[in-house]
Every structure is written in structure tokens, then in C-alpha cells.
Design brief:
alpha/beta; Rossmann fold; Zinc Finger, Delta Prime, domain 3; 5-stranded parallel beta sheet; 15 helices; 5 strands
């Protein structure tokens, strides 16, 4: 059963009303910062379009629906390739089998490579009747402008911190409140990412960053561990702590700073900005198609992090 959180209910109601009024565009681009239920909104809308009851046990049943296609990244570099787009083009021109419409959902539209994105343009320009394309992305700028311009943009706006955190607590009533608070910070408040992290019993990384900075943890050992997780996600979380350190060092006295800010008190502003730029470049590399060695990237960055505390 799909139960939309409060911040998605208004968006879904507007889309449903537009559908009832026969004014829903054939191409929709749902976008947000990620972790706010963007894909869930796409799933709910897809069910509405094929007239499946959202009370159904959705995921398994809907994946096998003949008038619905899910397009996800796969293979080396986790891309959506041109073969997937050709398959969608063949799918949308067919007559619906049991539903009144055909729907194709791209769960990570920004993962389309250039050839795939260009191939999709033709379908977007000349959509067959009774067919809908729903694209989802948490990186809108990585999509071609020509893709964006041919879709109706559907923004998913983050809820306020209090609403999001209260929703997480309702999903996980027995969870550790301190762990939720720390993970909410690390994941930018994105509630679905926090819930997924809690279900994996994921621990905040602040402790490990402190241990490396204070010389109590071997950066090479931690790099090996982190490389087996989700590198881009870890860098995003690391960047949030670095930003907090950069802000705290002038907002409060060193004596009242948190442990991580105090550990890096000897680092200069320039050194912190250099670290920021390096992490941002690593993140871009890991999101790309070159398939860099995550362990080596983490080794270099964690060694530099330790050096920051020593002001080398």
C-alpha cells in the first residue's frame, strides 16, 4: 500500500486533478534533492495512470504489469543506455493491453548517457496517444536542457526539519533518537534516506572522522571499509560535516566547538577550502562514468584529513 507523506500529498492531488481534467502532459520530470520520496510519487502517479488500486501490494505486482515499464540504471557505470530507450520507444507505440494507458518510469533519469538522452528526445517530441513518460532525478542539472524543456517539471520540495524528523520518528518509533538526529544531519534531513540508513543500522560517520583527525584510526583501514559502502553518499555526508566545521569556527569559540571542529582548529581556511574542492571533485568522478577506484580516493582524502588536524 502506498502511503504518501504529508509533503507529497498536495503535489499528488494536483497531478491527479490535472489528469481528471485531461490536461496532464505526456512527459513529467519529478525532481528534488533526493530522499524526499520522489520515486514514491512517481510510483503513485503511475498506479493512478494505469488505474491500479494503490492499496494493492504495489511493488511486485506492478513491476509485472504489461502496461508499465521501470527503467533503472544497470551495468558498468550504472547508466541507462540506448538499448533501454529503444525498448521504451517500442513499448509506448503499442496498444495498451489491460490498462487505459501505458506508462514508463525512469527512476534515475540523470543516469542516461548522451546517446540514450538524445534517443529519448524523439519520443518526447512525438508522444504516442495514451502513453506517459515519468522521469525522476535528484540531479536536475545533469539532464540535457532539451530533455528538461520537453517535460513538465514537478518539483518535490523538502518539508521543514520538524515535520521531516517527526515523520521519521513515526516510521521508527523504537529507534535511537540521537542516531536519528545525527543521520538527519548527515543526509541533509532527507527522511527516506534516514529511514533506509536506520534500517541498515548505519552509524553516523562523525566518530570515524574525529578518530582519523585525532590520529586514533588508520586512514587506510577506514578507506578500505568505506570503499565497500556507497562512496558518493559518504562524501555527501562528509561535506556536510566540513561545512559545519567551516561555519562553527567563526560562529562560536573553540572552547565551545564540537569535537570535530576543535580537532581541526589548527587548519587554515585555505586548507579547509582545498579539502572541500577535493571532495567535491571526487564526488563528481564517482557520479560519472570513468569508474574511479573509490578506495584510492578515500585513502588520499582521509590522509589529507588527518594532516589537517596536524596543520601540515
Amino acid at each position: 500500500m502506498i502511503v504518501l507523506p504529508p509533503w507529497l500529498q498536495g503535489v499528488y492531488a494536483d497531478l491527479s486533478a490535472t489528469l481528471v481534467a485531461a490536461r496532464l502532459p505526456h512527459a513529467l520530470l519529478i525532481h528534488g534533492s533526493g530522499g524526499w520520496g520522489e520515486t514514491l510519487l512517481a510510483e503513485a502517479l503511475a498506479l493512478r495512470l494505469i488505474e491500479r488500486d494503490s492499496n494493492d501490494d504495489a511493488a511486485a505486482a506492478v513491476l509485472a504489469h504489461p502496461d508499465l515499464r521501470w527503467i533503472v540504471p544497470e551495468g558498468a557505470g550504472e547508466q541507462i543506455g540506448i538499448d533501454a530507450i529503444r525498448s521504451v520507444a517500442e513499448f509506448v507505440v503499442r496498444t495498451p493491453q489491460i490498462a487505459p494507458r501505458k506508462v514508463a518510469v525512469f527512476t534515475s533519469a540523470d543516469a542516461m548517457n548522451t546517446h540514450a538522452a538524445n534517443a529519448l528526445l524523439k519520443t518526447l517530441e512525438e508522444p504516442p496517444p495514451d502513453s506517459y513518460l515519468i522521469l525522476v532525478t535528484d540531479s536536475l542539472r545533469d539532464l540535457l536542457p532539451t530533455i528538461r524543456s520537453r517535460c513538465r517539471l514537478v518539483p518535490v520540495r523538502p518539508a521543514d526539519v520538524t515535520t521531516a524528523r517527526a515523520w521519521v520518528h513515526r516510521q521508527l518509533p523504537d529507534a535511537n533518537a540521537e542516531q536519528i538526529t545525527a543521520l538527519c544531519f548527515e543526509h541533509g534531513g532527507a527522511p527516506y534516506r534516514v529511514v533506509a540508513a536506520m534500517e541498515r543500522d548505519e552509524q553516523p560517520i562523525a566518530g570515524e572522522l574525529c578518530e582519523v583527525a585525532l590520529g586514533r584510526c588508520d586512514p587506510l583501514v577506514l578507506a578500505e571499509t568505506w570503499s565497500k559502502a556507497t562512496p558518493v553518499d559518504l562524501i555527501d555526508r562528509w561535506l556536510r560535516y566540513l561545512l559545519r566545521v567551516m561555519g562553527q569556527r567563526y560562529a562560536i569559540t573553540v572552547a565551545s566547538a564540537d569535537v570535530l571542529t576543535a580537532a581541526l582548529s589548527k587548519a587554515t581556511d585555505r586548507q579547509l577550502f582545498v579539502m572541500w574542492d577535493a571532495l567535491a571533485r571526487d564526488r563528481q568522478l564517482l557520479r560519472g562514468t570513468t569508474n574511479p577506484n573509490a578506495r584510492l580516493l578515500f585513502e588520499a582524502r582521509l590522509l589529507a584529513w588527518r594532516d589537517l588536524a596536524r596543520a601540515l
